[in-house]
Design brief:
It contains five helices and four strands; from the N terminus they run E-H-E-H-E-H-E-H-H. It has a four-stranded parallel beta sheet with strand order 2-1-3-4. Helix 3 links the parallel strand 3 and strand 4. The longest helix is centred in the N-terminal third of the chain and has 17 residues. The radius of gyration is 12 Å and the shape is globular.
């Protein structure tokens, strides 16, 4: 099972997105565990996560996550994030996990 952490400032918006993403993960039969965390807490999950997905408002933390040893870090596009396009964000995650 792959572990994905979606991060934003306080994890309010990302939590709503992750709820929708979990539904799609189940529909597609994917083997992905996903959770939403504030970026400040996500640093504690670096060693457990296969992918860290950053909301646009915390995109400046990308280098810090990479420097701390995150396996893979991507920034969610503003359009997908702000419009809760869970399917598109999940597609981005799957592509990143396959790289």
């Amino acid at each position: 099972m792959k572990k994905v952490v979606v991060c934003c400032t306080m994890s309010v918006t990302s939590s709503l997105l992750v709820i929708k993403m979990r539904e799609i993960i189940e529909q597609r039969g994917l083997d992905i565990d996903i959770e939403a965390l504030p970026a400040s807490d996500a640093v504690n999950e670096i060693s457990n996560a296969d992918l860290i997905m950053l909301a646009p408002m915390v995109s400046d933390a990308k280098e810090a996550f990479e420097g701390a040893g995150a396996k893979k870090v991507v920034v969610i596009t503003s359009d997908n994030y702000l419009n809760y396009r869970a399917s598109d964000v999940l597609d981005q995650a799957v592509l990143a996990l396959d790289e």
